[in-house]
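INFO  loader      accepted 1 record
INFO  loader      residues=291
INFO  predictor   begin
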Amino acid sequence: MFDQAYKLRELVKRKMETSKPLRIIAVSSGKGGVGKTNFSVNIAIVLKELGKEVLLIDADFGLANVDVISGIFPKYNLSHVISKEKSIEDIIFDGPLGIKIIPGATGLYEMANLSEEELNNLILAFETIKSEFDFVLIDTGAGIHKDVVNLLRSSDEVAVITTPEPTALTDAYAVIKLIHKDVKRIHIVVNRTDNYKEADLTAQKMINAAKKFLNIDLNYLGYILEDKVVSKANKEQTPFYLRYKDSLSSKCILNIGKKLIYEEIDLPTVKPSFSSWFERLISNFIPAGGK
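INFO  predictor   done
INFO  writer      dumping tokens
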């Protein structure tokens, strides 16, 4: 039987070499409406402002809206790279403050149905950008759809966004339960909280449950206070961190960005590269033995 997964792994090993170390962080949530994409866009801008090179991949297949929040209006995505209509450079757009954005990356969800040639095109495309970035943020879909879970399992780090609402907490825990055996580090962020005490209590509930039932330690990145400027910025199609720099929400996400950069966390000695991430992604979408 034609072992597609094996051949693709060999392609990765031959054509993609380990390059500049980077951190690949997938961002997700148990349910929609908790501010996941807002977090992804604004934390990308914060990391850039703090001196890091950042690529933001919009992989929310159902509700891809990184471009809307960022105020850009792209015509192309990864599907055009797969078909060779465009190069990877053609679909990487300049976002706010100089972050780079791959919009509506539907190609990642189509990998299981791609031919070897099409996957090879995608691998080669990623090879051309593999050494440019310090952080790659992947804004995934909400919930526990298998394609979302596959994307999360492919990353060494996952940031799960929740609010203090019981339903959001329950759904966030469901995501963590599904991915905890494959992900090296799971961060949690409490969004739209009234105060830090509520946020800390919410985070502690998650931390205690994960420790008791899953035997893992979650990393509490921080919280973002409920702030009317966030919805105001959304209507203006501008990231709140840029438009309302002195707002409470902006100060909160700046703290999270600093913690991401400066906090020492227990990650592998050899940090992931595009090659290792893409190999894991292939393995998750196409199990050994092929289709």
